[in-house]
Structure formats: C-alpha cells, structure tokens
Amino acid sequence: MKKLAFILCITLLISACGLFPPPYKVPVTQGNLIAQEQLSQLQIGMSESQVTYLLGTPMVKDTFKANEWHYLYTARNATPDTKTSDVNDLTLTFSDGVLKQIKNN
C-alpha cells in the first residue's frame, strides 16, 4: 500500500510540472534600430558626421577596413510586440570621409 501511494505521489508531482505555463522569456534586441524612412534619407556623398546623425553610431567599425561601417540588428525571443528593424545588416563604405557605397543585406 505504501509503495502504491509513493508511486502515485511521484506520478502526480511529475505530471504537475506540465500544468504551468512556460516561463516568460525577455525579448533581447541588440544593434541599431533603423527605420525605412531613415534608410531612404541615406544618400551617396554624405559625410561621416551626417550618417552618424541620421543612423547613430555604427555597431561595428571594421578594424582592418577603417572605411567600412556595419549597422547590425538582431532580436532573440521576439514577441509580436517587439520592435523590429527594417534593416538587419547594413554596410556603408566611405572614401575620404564621404559615403561611397551602401549595401543592404
């Protein structure tokens, strides 16, 4: 009788874990949140300071290619309420402090 009660208690304890909702996961966003209107204002020939004013500081300034700026954006555990960026990977190339190339991946 004790064995049966013990097995019944263990079974109830193990199955009770499935009754709770899953834990809340905080959405983690990293990088630069860039809107489509900001991207449309970006033009070849802008200076580095104009680009910084428009888009903010780049996420990565390439060490080996000093004239290349990377604006990256990632979101983990995103929910429908999480703000998302229109651009996930934007690479800007400068020459003599002037924007020469825009790559939107």
Description:
The protein is of the alpha+beta class and 105 residues long. 28% of the residues lie in helices and 28% in strands. It has three helices and five strands; from the N terminus they run αβααββββ. The protein has helices spanning 2-16, 36-41, 48-55; strands at residues 28-31, 60-61, 68-76, 89-95, 98-104. Strands 1, 2, 3, 4 and 5 form a five-stranded antiparallel sheet that branches. The longest helix has 15 residues, at 2-16. The chain is rod-shaped, with a radius of gyration of 25 Å. It starts with a helix and ends with a strand.
The structure class reads: alpha+beta
Q: Just give the CATH class of the domain at 28-77 and 84-105.
A: Alpha Beta
Q: How do the helices and strands follow one another from N- to C-terminus? A: HEHHEEEE
Globular, elongated, flat, extended or rod-shaped: what is the shape? rod-shaped
Average pLDDT, rounded to a whole number, is: 85
Q: Helix content range of the residues, please? A: 25-40%
CATH architecture of the domain at 28-77 and 84-105: 2-Layer Sandwich
Radius of gyration: 25 Å
Described by strand count, sense and barrel closure, the largest sheet is: 5 strands, antiparallel
| Multimerization state | single chain
Low-confidence stretches: none
Q: How many individual helices? A: 3
Please count the beta strands (DSSP E, at least 2 residues each).
5
Task: Say what the CATH topology of the domain at 28-77 and 84-105 is.
Answer: Beta-lactamase Inhibitory Protein, Chain:B, domain 1
State the distance separating the first and last CA atoms. 67 Å
Task: Tell me what portion of residues adopts beta-strand conformation.
Answer: 25-35%
Main location: membrane
Function: Part of the outer membrane protein assembly complex, which is involved in assembly and insertion of beta-barrel proteins into the outer membrane.
Subcellular location: Cell outer membrane
Subunit structure: Part of the Bam complex.
